[in-house]
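Hey, resending since the last one bounced:
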Amino acid sequence: MVEAGHVRAGIEFWSMAGWRPYDPWPSPVREALEQLMHEPRPRSAGPVPMPMNVYEDGDALVVEACLPGVAPDDVELSSQDGVLTIRARGRVARREYLHQEIHDVEYLRRISLPADCRFERAEASAEHGVVVVRVPKVRPKPPEKIRIQINRKPSS
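The structure tokens again:
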């Protein structure tokens, strides 16, 4: 069943509500709770992790981070001690909203990568809210055969 939500400036916001055979909340309490759920919420207290994919592609490790609404200039990538850090901030224009569900957001994610990753050669790109970091891996050296000379003691 579709029920009308709250109305502001002549615009009605709809919400989905199921059939309620038994509603434990009296009507005024339920209405207050529903109104509270539609109130603008403050920005979260701290950074949130972004969803990501990590996979190997030939001689590189690829990290895809989903950062909706974040401009590439607002993404910071760094590495230290084998840990890749992705920090980003999405900002929403300041205006008088009739209804607001999209807010400023700060993302933070740290991921430990294998020791054979070469962070100094990492490259990144961004398209459609997805940041892709490509970190080359060190090519393993082929096994090297070393001949070891055995010194013989002179016999007495």
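The chain has a mean pLDDT of 81.

Sorry for the duplicate.
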